[in-house]
Amino acid sequence: MASNSTEAHNFYYRGVDHGIAKRYCGCSLSYDGRDAYSYSTIVAKVIPTKHCRKNQISTSDRSSGLTLVSYFSMSSTTGRHISLLTGASPFPVIRVPMERGSKELTPCDLRDNFLETLEGYMDGFNKRETRDRFVYLMQERMKIITLAPDEWAKPLRDMRFGKFEKIDITKAAEELKARNRKEASKRAAETKALFAKYVKDRHGADYCEFVHALINGWYDSKKYPFTNEERRMLQRKLDKNAAYIWTEGDTVVTSRGVRVGVDQAKVLLKAWAAGKDMRGLKIGNYTIVSYTGNTIKIGCHDIPRENMIALYEALIGKPFPEKQEAVPE
What confidence score (pLDDT) does residue 326 get? Predict the structure, then answer.
C-alpha cells in the first residue's frame, strides 16, 4: 500500500502531469488531476502561472505552475497532509485560506475566502499574532496577483480589498520578516546538526534505508527511528525535484511511486558502473534520458547520483568503481 508521503509526490508527477485521479485508495491523502484532498476536503490546487503556455503545467518546468496550499491545518492529520504536499511541491507554494469540507477551489471561492479571513484578522489587529497572519495573507494574495493569470488574479483585485490595502502594514511586515529570518536561521542550524548525525558513515543499504525512513513516516526503521519533527526537518534538506530510491524486498521503489524489479535494476547498475552509454535503454516502462555528474534522469525522474551509488552497493554487494565520465545530455 502506498503511503501518504508517496501520494503527495504522485499528486504532482501523476496527477498534475498526466491528469490522473486517485481518490481514497488506501490513503487519506488523494488527488484528482490538479486538486489534492485530505479525506474529502480540498487542501491543495496547482494553477498555471501567467507565463504558462496553453495551460500546460509540467513538473519539468517549475515556472509553469503555482501550488496553492491551505493556510489552515484544519486537523492534526490534515495538517500533516498539507505539510507533505508543501514539501513535495516542485512549484512555488502559496498558502491561501481554504474551508474544511470544500471539494473545490475556484477563483471566486479564493476571493471570498481571503475576504472573510482578512476581515476576521483586521478585527484583532492589536494582537501581534493576528497582525502577523493578516500581513502574511496580504503578501500571499499579492503573489497570486503578480504571478497568476487573470482568471485567478482579477478576483483578488476586487474593490472590497480596498479597506485592507489602506492599512499601513509596513512596520508589521518588517517585524514579521525579521522574526522569520531568525526562526529560519535557527531551523537551518538544527537541521544541519541533525543531518550530520544521521549522515555519518551512511552508505549502501544504510543510505537506502535512510531515505526510505525519511520519506515514509509509516516505515518502521530500527536504524533511523525519526520523530515526526526530525523527519520534517530532514526532509527540507532533500532536493524537491529529485526522486529518491530504496528497496522493498525484490522491488526497487522511488519516492514518486515507480516500482521496478531488483533484477532489472541490477542490469542497469552494472552497465552504469562499467561506463556504458545507457541513454535510450529501458528499465520497466521508463527510458534512461541522461546521466550527468550528479543526476541520472530516467523518464521524468531525476535520481541523485549518490543515491544510485548507494543502491549499487546495496544490490551488487561491493563498492562502486571509480567515477565514470559523465555523459552529456
Answer: 45
Q: Which CA distances in Å does 21 have to 1, 25, 34, 131, 187?
A: 17, 10, 9, 39, 36
Q: How far apart are CA 145 and CA 264, in angstroms?
A: 48
Spatial contact of 137 and 106, defined as CB atoms under 8 Å apart: no
Residue 175 is predicted with a pLDDT of 79
Angle between helix 128-147 and helix 107-123 axes, rounded to 10 deg: 150
Amino acid at 79: G
N-terminal to C-terminal alpha carbon distance within the chain: 35
Q: How far apart are CA 288 and CA 290, in angstroms?
A: 6
- Could you say which DSSP state residue 298 is in? E
Distance CA 294, CA 32 (A): 33
Buried b (16+ CB within 10 A) or exposed e, 233-259: bbbeebebebbbbbbeeeebbbbbbbe
Cβ-contact 211, 249 below 8 angstroms: no
144 burial (CB, 10 Å; 0-12 / 13-18 / 19+) is buried
Q: What is the reported pTM?
A: 0.68
The phi, psi pair for 51, rounded to 5°, reads -95, 0
One-letter identity of residue 203: H
Q: What pLDDT was estimated at residue 123? A: 73
Low-confidence ranges of the chain (pLDDT < 50): 1, 325-329
pLDDT in the model for residue 92: 93
| Cβ atoms within 10 Å of 291's Cβ, excluding its own | 22
Q: How many CB atoms lie within 10 A of CB 29?
A: 28
Q: What angle do CA 257, 258, 261 make, to 5 degrees?
A: 135
CA distance 272 to 183: 43
CA dist., res. 99 & res. 138, Å (int): 18
Domain parsing of the chain, residue ranges: 1-102, 106-188, 201-316
pLDDT digits (tens, 9 = 90+) for 183-196: 878 878 887 887 77
Query: Is 125 within 8 Å of 131 (Cβ atoms)?
Result: yes
Question: Tell me, what's the pLDDT at 285?
Answer: 66
